[in-house]
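Protocol step 4 of 6: structure prediction from sequence.
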Amino acid sequence: MRMIFILVLVSLVAAALFILPLRARPPIRDGGRIPVAASFYVLGEFARAVGGERVEVTTLIPAGGEPHEWEPSPRAVAEVRRAALFIYHGMGLDPWAERLAATLPRSKVLNATDGLPLSRKADGQLDPHVWLDPLLAQEMVQKIAAALNQIDPLGREQYEANKESYARQLRNLDSAYRNSLRSCRIRAVLTTHAFLDYLARRYGFQAIAIGGFSPEGEPSPARMKELVGLARKMRVRAVLTETLVSLRAAEVLAREVGAKVLRFNPLEGLTLEEEARGESYLTIMKKNLAVLREALGCEP
């Protein structure tokens, strides 16, 4: 009788050891990689940096797409539902993603900006461009690593190593910005819309937006007059415009105040040309630093 009891106990333990790994194992695709969906470019890049070869990341908004106005196709919705993890940004940048996330189990959804210190204007609007601050980008990367650890505990060691490697590059980027923007004669720039608040706050200059947080829409004549006066008072020498929006308002304002129009990439998405060249968050942020140095009149 005692022997039978021991055999039964051994069988139960063996079964438990077999079942537990299965329960911890997330959905996988052909090739053994874990499917992850990201609402837009930056989140997709961060997820690839952390996940490495263990994940297959789908960025829903394609190259050339603009996250403020994009809407998912049925195919994109199906891609999200198949994913083991859906990463979205929130803060009104990707409202379609917020609606979709609300229909999914909480265990497979990550709001990458939840809990971050946010920039809010006097009218209550939030600036969603958190990722332009390298140290806040590092916090987003840490959140993604924690979410991947949760759905794939067996990959924890790799995720943690990848996270530390990428976080080190983000800290180096922060140091480059901090050191390069210390010796600038001018402490303000104009921007086509309010995308630079976090970067300006981190490195001690002022970003004056022509428009609001969305790149759509044109400023009123009264607003343009106000901006001209402010730009002259602060000796602004550059208007920063984006890769995915119209230059018209920026060019008009630049002519009025004798400023340059410079291209700054807020990384809401890559153009097809940038994607073909193999550009990344890190390479573009280094180019953005060179643009800021010119705009702010920094010493060589």
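Step 5 (inspection) to follow. The beta strands are 34-38, 55-59, 85-88, 109-111, 119-120, 126-127, 188-191, 206-209, 238-241, 260-263.
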